[in-house]
Automatic annotation (TrEMBL):
Domain of life: Eukaryota
Keyword field contains Cell membrane: no
Organism field: Brassica cretica (Mustard)
One Pfam family hit: DALR_1
First-level EC class: ligase
Protein family: Belongs to the class-I aminoacyl-tRNA synthetase family.
Name by which UniProt lists this protein: arginine--tRNA ligase
Recorded catalytic activity of this chain's protein: tRNA(Arg) + L-arginine + ATP = L-arginyl-tRNA(Arg) + AMP + diphosphate
Length: 175
């Protein structure tokens, strides 16, 4: 996972580098196995597994780390926001993300009932895409909707972590 380490040697401890590289490496292989329908053929392609674009663990772990970074950079106490702020989804991208988050329970049930973990992988990838679409259009930090959007980021990160847990992948919090 050398590409993750470029420029991080001064910012991160050796333990952080090792833990992140291990999480991404193992996650890449696990996710590549689980994202395919178990009834179809399988091709082992290490380069494809480690791609940071598309439906890969590297992309998903990076998306999660980016969400965590947004929350950290805000300097806000998320637990306090949960008590005092109402989540408002006024824009189409916020609504699409919110609606997708609501489908988490039914997706887990479907994956468990059918024994197709690829259903959960597809959900997680779609969640990341919806978050990226939201974030590319709407400012979070410094916007009038900052508090609500930080809550939306937090909910997205929580659901992503639950997906990672179910798939046996360790999330990373910074890359």
């Amino acid at each position: 996972m050398w590409f993750l380490c470029l420029g991080k040697d001064k910012e991160w401890t050796p333990e952080e580098l090792d833990q992140t590289a291990e999480a991404v490496g193992y996650g890449a292989v696990k996710y590549a196995d689980l994202k395919s329908n178990r009834t179809t053929g399988y091709t082992f392609d290490f380069d494809a597994m480690l791609s940071d674009k598309g439906n890969t663990a590297v992309y998903l772990l990076y998306a999660h780390a980016r969400i965590c970074s947004i929350i950290r950079k805000s300097g806000k106490d998320i637990d306090e926001l949960k008590k005092t702020v109402e989540l408002v989804l006024d824009h189409p991208e916020e609504q699409a993300l919110g609606l997708h988050l609501l489908r988490f329970a039914e997706t887990v049930e479907e994956a468990c009932t059918t024994l197709f973990p690829n259903v959960l992988c597809l959900y997680l990838y779609s969640l990341s895409e919806r978050f990226t679409s939201f974030y590319s259009i709407h400012q979070v930090i410094g916007s009038p909707e900052e508090a609500s959007r930080l809550l939306l980021c937090e909910v997205t990160a929580i659901v992503m972590r639950k997906c990672f847990h179910l798939l046996g992948i360790n999330p990373v919090y910074k890359i």
